[in-house]
Amino acid sequence: MTGAINIKTEAAPGRERAAGPWREGWRSFKKSKISLVGAGIVLFFIILAIVGPMIAPEGINEQNLSQRLLAPSSEHWFGTDDFGRDIFSRVIHGASISLKVGIFSVILSVIVGSFLGIIAGYYGRWVDTIISRIFDILLAFPSILLAIAVVAVLGPSLQNALIAIAIINVPNFGRLIRSKVLSVKEEEYIVAAKAIGMRDSRILFSHILPNSMTPIIVQGTLAIATAIIEAAALGFLGLGAQAPAPEWGKMLADSRIYLLKAPWTMIFPGLAIMLTVLGFNLMGDGLRDALDPKMKS
Amino acid sequence: MLHYMGRRLFQLIPVLLGMTFIVFMLIRSIPGNPAQVILGQQATKEAVEALNASLGLNKPWYTQYFGYLGGIFQGDLGVSLRTKLPVSEEIFPYLAATAELALFAMIIAVIIGVNAGIISAWFQNSWFDYVAMVVALIGVSVPVFWLGLMEQWAFSNQLGWFPTSGREDVRDPITAITHFYLLDTLIQGRFDQFSEVFKRLVLPGMALATIPMAIIARMTRSSMLEVMRSDYVRTARAKGQKMFIVVYKHALKNAVIPVLTVIGLQTGLLLGGAILTETIFSWPGIGRYIYDAIGFRDYPVIQSGILVIAFIFIMINLIVDLLYTVIDPRIKYK
């Protein structure tokens, strides 16, 4: 009996030790109400993107010219556009487009940026010089103009907008990972791994990359917010999703001529963009405070 | 200091050279031939080839690139394929239009952002702090083109306070001297035109100011919070110094460095990022100038336009770095 009690008391500190940085991070994230609101908004839009096509009252392009530019009502919650299409349905369908571009462009930037950043940070010397200068050059461009130029080369489409946004974000992640690698590679466990003759690729991908994940997750979440705005901006300029895709930026561009007659065609897609971006920003801020207190602004 | 400046300028050379190369190659990968665009789809093959030859577009890419590079070193940014005017002359009014708008926006952003940040920090956890920070969070999340449209709808269409778009009243055009219209109208003593130009700056200026304003407010708040916990501020408060003096004479000076970095970075971003605001408000700025040039495959305009913006962006950041030493004499560059 006494033994059992002893075991219990000994196990307790052990369990506390097991609470790693992720659990600690989650605990601190949970404490911040505003971060939870952000996570809630993000979750809402993710669910909307998945189940949206099933719950939307109408399809993306169901035209009804007798119902053009109707104001919001119980039948059409967000009103109708110039083709008599239900804006509520189109905004719901648009969630998946914006989230897809935001999330996948950032994943692409993270993959390419991490790869380049790790190589630059780990190997140093001329490899580092070349890669870092390329990052400097890309960062000196006004990002939206670079994105426009890339789309001009590839041709206007949603997929090419995604690629353009990924390209302009690569140097941000590349620099982040590079600086992280520079600090991690001097740690004792990396020196030890080198000493026992571990291959570079294994050290890079099994040890250095996982230990650089925290800033990537934080920066990635915030970057999704920016990417969603950039995708909408390209859509607004006619360089992203093409008609009749219910992309929010494109919907805003189409609403311009009806600004006076039918402001609802502009209000709701814009609100959708703002809320989604706000969600990712709040969540990113919360993650930063929880996971990486040093980055706290 | 001079040595530092020289080194920074020297480091810029490879970046700028790299930029010219990337822009040059990128622009030439855009599908479509400028000669074809200029002459239209009906043009004969011979006519297109003849125009290509006269524009020098039939030469190998490296000849074109080094020719372009040589020109830049002599201050020649090329000749617009569309208007046949030298880009170095043509670009200035567009650049001035954007610079005037960006500066106007930045002034609004700094005045409101810095003061909101200070008040938030001073009254930390008060209702003002919460409201200001929620507004700032919304501010960084709002798409600037949507905000511009909303402003047009509310303040122009509904309330009729400001003109919807444009930089000047077309019925009463401004005689350009510096191409900064606020300045030009003042020089000429045309106060009626000054007020018209000012009114036209308000809506696009506010739209463009939102994001930097929100970022500056958040940065000032966190920077001030740090400084206000320091001993000398506590001493000043304990002595019973007025809030105004504690904040503006003691605390702000030490909190301003990170804020200044943000201001520099954002001013540069505004120059290139103004394209959306310019589109909505029909503002004849540099963003629109480059965007339209892409449609016409006007290579010299696109490559020189992007290069000029990037150069200004880099220079602003250099100036901000140098300003650090003026504000905080403890910082010394070697």
UniProtKB/TrEMBL annotation, chain A:
Residue ranges of every copy of the ABC transmembrane type-1 domain listed in the record: 95-284
Subcellular location: Cell membrane
Annotated GO biological process: transmembrane transport
Annotated keywords: Cell membrane, Membrane, Transmembrane, Transmembrane helix, Transport
GO cellular component: plasma membrane
Family designation: Belongs to the binding-protein-dependent transport system permease family. OppBC subfamily.
Name under which the protein is recorded: Peptide ABC transporter permease
TrEMBL record, chain B:
Signal peptide (from-to): none
Keyword match Transmembrane: yes
UniProt domain ABC transmembrane type-1: residue ranges: 95-324
Keywords in alphabetical order: Cell membrane, Membrane, Transmembrane, Transmembrane helix, Transport
Biological process according to GO: transmembrane transport
Family, per entry: Belongs to the binding-protein-dependent transport system permease family.
Protein name: Peptide ABC transporter permease
UniProt organism field: Lysinibacillus xylanilyticus
